[in-house]
Design a protein that fits this description.
Belongs to the anti-sigma-factor antagonist family. This is Anti-sigma factor antagonist. This protein is of the alpha/beta class. It is built from five helices and five strands; from the N terminus they run αββαβαβαβα.
């Protein structure tokens, strides 16, 4: 039987430039599926990477566990000197980020292109 979390959230990895990774996230990020984001964040936040973009454009729900994955990823990025940029444009992602004050912690932009221009 398939893992229910795998159907709730998924991450597609893209490498548009040397040292830059884009994680395109879709679905629902809650307690049962947040690891679908946490694992690729940990895997791609490494020393030889200049920047990681987390594209939340396909996310329909961003719960506290999903926010925690982003916070842990941001802490890891800071410790490694890797830039982490979030792309959040929908109410489902912008509202929880703003309501928790994390918009003051994360670098949040409106498009993948805008995020990539930072590298």
């Amino acid at each position: 039987m398939p893992d229910p979390a795998a159907t709730l959230a998924s991450v597609r990895v893209e490498r548009p430039a040397d040292g830059v990774v884009v994680l395109h996230v879709s679905g629902e990020l809650d307690t049962s599926s947040a690891d679908e984001l946490a694992r690729p964040l940990k895997e791609h936040l490494v020393e030889n990477v200049r920047g990681v973009v987390v594209d939340l454009g396909g996310v329909r729900f961003l719960g506290s566990a999903g926010l925690e994955s982003l916070v842990v990823g941001n802490q890891r990025a800071d410790s490694l000197g890797v830039a982490l940029v979030l792309v959040a444009t929908t109410r489902a992602t912008v509202r929880p980020i703003q309501a928790t004050g994390l918009d003051a912690v994360f670098t949040v932009v409106g498009s993948v292109e805008e995020a990539l221009a930072r590298f």
